[in-house]
């Protein structure tokens, strides 16, 4: 099975009217036109690496990174990420998929072939706190996040000026308990119109419905402002303060219907003492949130994350 980088949308918006996606020209080396990535998960057995590497050799590819991981013999699963250069990739990519298919079937692989120079289209959702949004925009501007940002959506107007100053379309869609379903309908329509591949919740403080999660399954990244599984839900810093914790942290995870219980992508912590009040915890925590989210987003953009049984395998 191949899952291309771009969401398989059938847009009824004519190309000329499709949302303008502003990009910055700074490109890291690993976005060369001939660079591709192959992600594989399958039952473990001898010969997988040999068949994959032989296949790539026969296609004229040069492997630049190869990582693999086998789980315990009982569950017997194998995970692999191969990054390679191949001449004339653009003309090759369709035949590459078709010619890899028999190997994928032989090993019952779940697999994805993605092209490094195809920017994923990332929408960002934000509420009132802007620090995570600003970190993503800053890294995007300086080329550290190789993505398109076609649209940003918020349930508050506060980030409008920041976002529109960068030429990114901003939609303010208020959300209340009574209007939540209609608000999500509008959000999903916008994501479809802008052909969004995945969504980042940058301190977006609304719980997404199961419908939203099904449409963007494993394509929504959230930053939770605690070291999960501690302090799931709202107001984690106040609860951490009351608990007298000696560590605070942040967790980036894929979003599922189960609030803050999706597959963890990245976490970090910092020591604190009894002398810190809640505002100090929030201030220190914001710095952790920003860096943890940016790392998780960059790994997603670079196809470094595989998901299995509510856990991730991250090939850093
Ligand atoms: N389906 C999911 N939606 C969201 C998740 C998730 O894991 N699954 N993560 C949250 C982010 N979040 C903590 O990181 C969080 C956001 C909001 C709430 C909450 O209780 N929200 C209330 C309304 C709050 C308000 O009106 O300001 C609610 O939605 O009823 C808890 C945790 C993002 N969404």
TrEMBL record:
CDD domains: ACT_F4HF-DF (cd04875), FMT_core_Formyl-FH4-Hydrolase_C (cd08648)
Pathway: Purine metabolism; IMP biosynthesis via de novo pathway; formate from 10-formyl-5,6,7,8-tetrahydrofolate: step 1/1
Gene3D superfamilies named among the record's database cross-references: 3.30.70.260, Formyl transferase, N-terminal domain
SUPFAM superfamilies (alphabetical): ACT-like, Formyltransferase
Entry EC no(s): 3.5.1.10
Chemical reaction(s) catalysed: (6R)-10-formyltetrahydrofolate + H2O = (6S)-5,6,7,8-tetrahydrofolate + formate + H(+)
Role, per record: Catalyzes the hydrolysis of 10-formyltetrahydrofolate (formyl-FH4) to formate and tetrahydrofolate (FH4).
Protein name: Formyltetrahydrofolate deformylase
Species this chain originates from: Fodinisporobacter ferrooxydans
Chain's gene name: purU
């Amino acid at each position: 099975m191949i899952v291309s980088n771009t969401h398989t949308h059938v847009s009824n918006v004519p190309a000329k009217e499709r949302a303008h996606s502003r990009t910055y020209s700074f490109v890291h080396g690993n976005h060369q036109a001939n660079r591709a990535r192959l992600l594989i998960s399958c039952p473990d057995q001898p010969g997988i690496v040999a068949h994959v590497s032989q296949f790539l050799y026969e296609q004229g590819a040069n492997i630049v990174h190869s990582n693999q991981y086998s789980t315990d013999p009982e569950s017997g699963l194998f995970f692999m990420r191969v990054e390679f250069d191949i001449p004339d990739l653009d003309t090759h990519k369709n035949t590459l998929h078709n010619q890899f298919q028999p190997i994928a079937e032989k090993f019952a692989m779940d697999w994805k072939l993605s092209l490094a120079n195809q920017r994923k289209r990332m929408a960002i959702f934000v509420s009132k706190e802007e620090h995570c949004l600003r970190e993503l925009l800053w890294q995007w501007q300086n080329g550290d996040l190789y993505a398109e940002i076609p649209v940003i959506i918020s349930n508050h107007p506060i980030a409008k000026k920041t976002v529109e100053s960068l030429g990114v379309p901003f939609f303010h869609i208020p959300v209340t308990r009574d209007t939540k379903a209609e608000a999500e309908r509008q959000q999903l329509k916008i994501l479809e119109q802008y052909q969004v591949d995945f969504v980042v919740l940058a301190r977006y403080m609304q719980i997404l419905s199961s419908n939203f999660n099904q449409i963007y399954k494993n394509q929504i990244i959230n930053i939770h402002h605690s070291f999960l599984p501690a302090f799931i839900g709202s107001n984690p810093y106040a609860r951490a303060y009351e608990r007298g914790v000696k560590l605070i942290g942040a967790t980036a995870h894929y979003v599922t219907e189960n609030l803050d219980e999706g597959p963890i992508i990245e976490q970090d912590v910092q020591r604190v003492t009894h002398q810190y009040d809640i505002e100090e915890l929030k201030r220190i925590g914001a710095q952790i949130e920003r860096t943890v989210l940016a790392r998780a987003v960059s790994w997603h953009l670079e196809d470094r994350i595989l998901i299995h049984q509510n856990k991730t395998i991250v090939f850093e």
